[in-house]
Design goal:
This protein is mainly alpha-helical. The chain has one domain. Helix content is 71%, strand content 0%.
């Protein structure tokens, strides 16, 4: 499924120039360094922020950053004649396609929860700063969180499983390396959460990369990703309270 890429196929070709990819990786390094600095910054109360008061601007800024990354990817891929739909690889032809992808996504989400449970047993909680103050509490914050989660599901899948994974596949000609590589970049982008959560997010990214390679589309991963963000950041607190 994710072994050696078949030679001579369109998927083995880069979707953007090497220069564009290097600039993208430079942007990722800056994001990683900024996130690491935020995790190690002295903040009263042991959390990532001192106050819950400004979470909606944080949600919105995260959404804007994700869409800026999509714009950057589009700028690079469009010069090769590759549109965003080509990165997603296919559109729904009708209700049956939607139901099929939703059903597959539910199964993948269940497998993802099992992986998360296993990792939680293997990697104990450490001294990372809490993200609790960033989670939504009011109806307005919940709506903003849902928008942010949906945007993350679309944007991050397109950027990492669509763009980065395809670029790495063209570079290495190995499906397994492209899946592992994009998962590492995706996880490190969340350095603001601390190294233990980064390990779990890397596994999350690798899992979604394998799903993209298996299904030959990003649609399933987008559903899983967006739903997982909704669940982890808000809905699980209501259901499991």
């Amino acid at each position: 499924m994710v072994g050696r890429a078949p030679s001579g196929t369109a998927e083995c070709e880069p979707v953007a120039s090497t220069r564009h990819f290097l600039v993208f990786l430079g942007i990722m390094i800056l994001v990683i360094l900024a996130g690491s600095a935020a995790q190690h910054r002295q903040v009263a109360g042991g959390g990532l922020t001192e106050s819950h008061a400004h979470v909606i601007p944080i949600y919105l800024s995260t959404t804007v950053m994700n869409w800026l990354l999509v714009w950057f990817v589009w700028r690079g891929t469009s010069r090769r004649g590759v549109g965003l739909l080509a990165l997603i690889r296919g559109r729904w032809a009708g209700p049956r396609d939607i139901l099929r992808d939703v059903a597959i996504a539910l199964g993948c989400w269940g497998a993802l929860l099992a992986v998360a449970w296993a990792l939680a047993r293997l990697v104990e909680q450490g001294g990372e700063k809490s993200l609790d103050l960033l989670l939504p509490r009011t109806p307005g914050e919940v709506i903003a969180w849902l928008v942010t989660s949906a945007s993350a599901g679309f944007c991050e899948e397109l950027v990492f499983r669509g763009y980065v994974q395809r670029q790495l596949l063209a570079l290495t000609q190995r499906g397994s390396l492209s899946v592992l590589g994009q998962g590492m970049v995706f996880g490190l982008m969340h350095a603001y959460q601390g190294w233990r959560p980064v390990l779990r997010i890397c596994a999350f990214g690798v899992f979604l990369g394998a799903v993209a390679a298996w299904r030959k589309t990003l649609r399933v991963g987008m559903i899983v990703h967006g739903w997982q963000d909704v669940w982890a950041g808000w809905l699980s607190g209501l259901v499991l309270r």
